[in-house]
């Protein structure tokens, strides 16, 4: 038996998906940087959402303690940072090489630590004269939920048209239907959210800025929980090596900031209006 039962999408969730899809139509932009460096960014409107896994029967204690988060508008990269994009930072002498090498430049970069991801965001900021950073954990969940309250933005059942999930018996790649990738898939291989953001579920874990802790310590305004001396950071989204339950919108995992795994990458955010 898989992780989830029958698919459920509430009427209000469907309405939210329609509204968010309409809002996002004019909210995509790319930086005037040499291809393939330029990230394609999608503006996420500010507002409140409910964060946490209290309503999910598959949730675990570190997902509990739902709270309302009031976010300001920000931008998020449409996909995870690709190998080609990251390698430009390596070639510039600012980033160290990833531990793993993708077969194509269009796969997400993996084998990079949290520290590597932070360095890349700072380098890209300097090159573009903009303010890039990692997403906060709250921002990541807001983007993944896309206005819904279900386990995934499309419903409560994992569907391989939307993500590169591992075999449900763990821990190896799985191939079924549209998911023909036993390993890492090129970015944008699966259906995006109504706002146009791809690869949030499965494929590779994504580093976020936050220090790992229970939600009682987290801010309510969506900024990262980032105390000095943090020893464990959060990753989100699951991976191609793990069952779909690890990719739920509220699911969390933790790694040391120096960890470099073949199924961990990252995406970037930008503060709107900060140049």
Number of strands: 11
Shape summary: globular
**What is the rounded distance between the termini?**
50 Å
CATH class: Alpha Beta
The CATH topology:
paralog of FGE (formylglycine-generating enzyme)
Can you name the CATH architecture?
A: Alpha-Beta Complex
User: What amount of the residues lies in strands?
Assistant: 15-25%
Structural class: alpha+beta
Strand arrangement within the widest β-sheet reads: 1-2-5-11-6
- The fourth-level CATH homologous superfamily is paralog of FGE (formylglycine-generating enzyme)
Q: Report mean pLDDT, rounded to a whole number.
A: 84
Helical segment tally? Answer: 4
> Which value, in Å, is the CA radius of gyration?
17 Å
| Helix proportion range | 10-25%
Order of helices and strands: HEEEEEHHEHEEEEE
- Which spans have pLDDT < 50 for at least 5 consecutive residues? 1-26
What is the makeup of the main sheet? 5 strands, antiparallel
Total separate domains:
1
Q: Can you characterise this structure?
A:
With 275 residues, the chain is an alpha+beta fold. The protein has one domain: paralog of FGE (formylglycine-generating enzyme). Helix content is 17%, strand content 17%. The chain contains 4 helices and 11 strands. The strands form 3 sheets. Strands 1-2-5-11-6 form a 5-stranded antiparallel β-sheet. Strands 9-8-7-10 form a 4-stranded mixed β-sheet. It is globular, with a radius of gyration of 17 Å.
């Amino acid at each position: 038996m898989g992780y989830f039962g029958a698919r459920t999408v509430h009427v209000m969730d469907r309405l939210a998906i329609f509204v968010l899809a309409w809002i996002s139509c004019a909210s995509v932009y790319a930086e005037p940087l040499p291809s393939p460096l330029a990230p394609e960014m999608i503006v996420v409107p500010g507002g409140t959402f409910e964060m946490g896994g209290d309503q999910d029967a598959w949730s675990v204690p570190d997902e509990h303690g739902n709270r309302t988060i009031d976010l300001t508008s920000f931008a998020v990269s449409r996909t995870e940072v690709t190998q080609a994009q990251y390698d430009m930072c390596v070639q510039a002498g600012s980033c160290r090489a990833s531990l793993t090498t993708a077969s194509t430049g269009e796969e997400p970069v993996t084998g990079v630590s949290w520290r590597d991801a932070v360095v890349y965001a700072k380098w890209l900021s300097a090159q573009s004269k903009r303010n890039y950073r990692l997403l906060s954990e709250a921002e990541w969940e807001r983007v993944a939920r896309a206005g819904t309250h279900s386990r995934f933005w499309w419903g409560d059942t994992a569907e391989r048209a939307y993500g590169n999930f591992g075999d449900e018996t763990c821990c190896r790649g799985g191939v079924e239907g549209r998911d023909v990738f036993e390993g890492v898939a090129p970015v944008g291989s699966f259906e995006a959210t109504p706002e146009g953001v791809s690869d949030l579920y499965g494929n590779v874990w994504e580093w976020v800025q936050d220090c790992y802790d229970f939600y009682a310590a987290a801010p309510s305004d969506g900024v990262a929980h980032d105390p000095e001396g943090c020893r464990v950071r959060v990753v989100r989204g699951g991976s191609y090596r793990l069952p779909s339950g690890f990719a739920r919108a509220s699911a969390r995992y933790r790694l040391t900031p120096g960890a470099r795994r073949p199924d961990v990458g990252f995406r970037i955010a930008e503060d709107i209006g900060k140049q």
